[in-house]
Automatic annotation (TrEMBL):
Family as reported in the entry's similarity comment: Belongs to the membrane fusion protein (MFP) (TC 8.A.1) family.
Keyword terms: Ion transport, Signal, Transport
The name this protein goes by in its record: Efflux RND transporter periplasmic adaptor subunit
GO function terms (MF aspect): transition metal ion binding; transmembrane transporter activity
Matching Pfam families: Beta-barrel_RND_2, BSH_CusB, CzcB_C
Region described as Disordered: spans on this chain: 27-48, 411-433
Domain CusB-like beta-barrel: 252-327
Origin: domain of life: Bacteria
CzcB-like C-terminal circularly permuted SH3-like domain: residues covered: 337-395
Alphabetical list of InterPro entries matching this protein: Beta-barrel_RND_2, BSH_CusB, CzcB_C, MFP_Cation_Efflux, RND_pump_MFP
Keyword Metal-binding on entry: no
Length: 433
């Protein structure tokens, strides 16, 4: 009976406690917001003074959405105010010195200079085809003897190559020799005709060739070099115009280097090169680019450059792999920035320029060549500015939130991603459009 009488009193006590808690919560929520100095235990960031004008309210996750009064955004997030700080430049972000130090923001000057254009590309040594000579049969003949029996044999100028039996050659040489000592005008005219016949047949009465035993004629090497190809054997019958062998000179060689298209634009004829050969460590060969070949490799998208190298000792052989270092003439001086300063967003690139008073500006740029840790700036900077090279992505996020990126001179520049709420110490200048 006593327990039944206590139940109503307990219910009344619970109702009074709930009402007190509700009244205390409403009273605390309506209290004015003070600074962090008034609430030492508060972890919230300092807010602007009460006199600061609220421009609009926005969702930190979707900063493009604005509202005229506080509340929940379409994402269900509590909106925060955007205050006017009296700034006049709507394209900058202002950060106090303490925050700059905490973020580790570093800036580097924009210099004007010509980037080092030295590049290294692979290459292959080949024959200098200007020194290639073909030994052929001008008339029908039979190869009776070969003095050179294998390709890649080194020969000296004037060395015997082959004995051939050719009736036309034999009769032409015999006719020319028979007319050597004539004195009459008619005979001299015949001698001249005989010499012209020898020249047409590929022989000359002045080169020391003579008809051997059995009417054989010995062919001699027109130059020193290496037998590149040997297309006949002893006893073989050859027709007029058929190639007997090819002689390649080795006093100079060609190097074909594969140039990426970005590099090919800086290379031209007579560009000096330095060649290192893996098979000959410690030796350096110097030459120049003779020509850029109008032939782009469809697989590697590289353009071939022909380089001429002197090879007086014959140390360079066709087929060797080499490393080619090209030293193009430096171009004109242009603004350059460290590679770390660039913020690439798809098809567009920008940098963060540090200005006086802790102000930072996002600037759209057009980048050029990169070398040695620096990148050319073809448009957007003039030189002498300071660009942020560390911590620029945090500043870029603040610029995105403030709308500074939407107000760049380049209308195509867009924020890389949605930014979060401003960090303590950062102030975004001006209103969003």
């Amino acid at each position: 009976m006593k327990r039944a009488l206590l139940i109503p009193f307990i219910l009344v006590g619970l109702l009074i406690t709930a009402a007190g808690a509700y009244w205390a919560g409403r009273h605390h929520g309506s209290a004015p917001t003070g600074s962090s100095a008034d609430h030492p235990d508060s972890t919230e960031s300092p807010t602007p003074a009460a006199s600061a004008k609220v421009l609009y309210w926005y969702d930190p996750m979707v900063p493009a959405q604005h509202a005229d009064k506080p509340g929940l955004s379409s994402m269900g997030m509590q909106m925060v105010p955007k205050y006017a700080d009296g700034g006049t430049d709507t394209n900058t972000v202002r950060i106090d010195a303490a925050t700059v130090q905490n973020l580790g923001v570093r800036a580097a000057p924009v210099e004007r200079r010509a980037l080092a254009a030295t590049v290294q590309v692979p290459g292959t040594i080949g024959w200098d085809l200007r020194q290639a000579v073909i030994v052929s049969a001008r008339v029908d003949a039979v190869v009776s003897k070969l003095y050179v029996r294998a390709p890649y044999t080194t020969i000296a100028a004037g060395a015997p190559l082959a004995d051939v039996l050719a009736p036309q050659w034999s009769s032409a040489v015999a006719e020319s020799q028979a007319l050597q000592q004539v004195q009459s005008a008619e005979a001299k005219a015949l001698r001249g005709a005989a010499q012209q016949r020898l020249q047409v047949l590929g022989l000359s009465s002045m080169d020391g060739r003579a008809i051997g035993r059995g009417g054989q004629i010995t062919l001699h090497a027109p130059q020193a070099g290496v037998i590149g190809t040997l297309d006949v054997r002893e006893g073989q019958r050859v027709n007029a115009g058929q190639t007997l062998m090819t002689i390649n000179g080795l006093s100079t060689v060609w190097v074909e280097a594969a140039l990426p298209q970005a590099v090919a634009g800086t290379v031209h004829a007579d560009t000096p090169v330095t060649v290192h050969v893996d098979a000959l460590p410690g030796q350096v060969f110097r030459g120049h680019v003779e020509a850029l070949l109008p032939d782009i490799d469809m697989t590697t998208r590289t353009q071939r450059a022909r380089i001429v190298l002197a090879n007086p000792e014959g140390a360079l052989s066709p087929g060797m792999f080499v490393t080619v270092q090209l030293d193009p003439v430096p171009g004109k001086a242009v603004p350059v920035v460290p590679d770390d300063a660039l913020i690439a967003t798809g098809d567009h690139t920008r940098v963060i320029v540090a200005e006086d008073g802790g102000h930072f500006r996002a600037v759209a740029v057009r980048a050029g060549r990169a070398a040695g840790g620096y990148t050319e700036i073809l448009d957007g900077l003039a030189g002498g500015e300071k660009v942020v090279v560390s911590g620029q992505f945090l500043i870029d996020s603040e610029a995105s939130l403030s709308g500074a990126l939407d107000r760049l001179n380049d209308p195509a520049a867009k924020p890389a991603s949605a930014a979060s709420a401003p960090m303590p110490g950062m102030t975004m200048q001006g209103d969003r459009p």
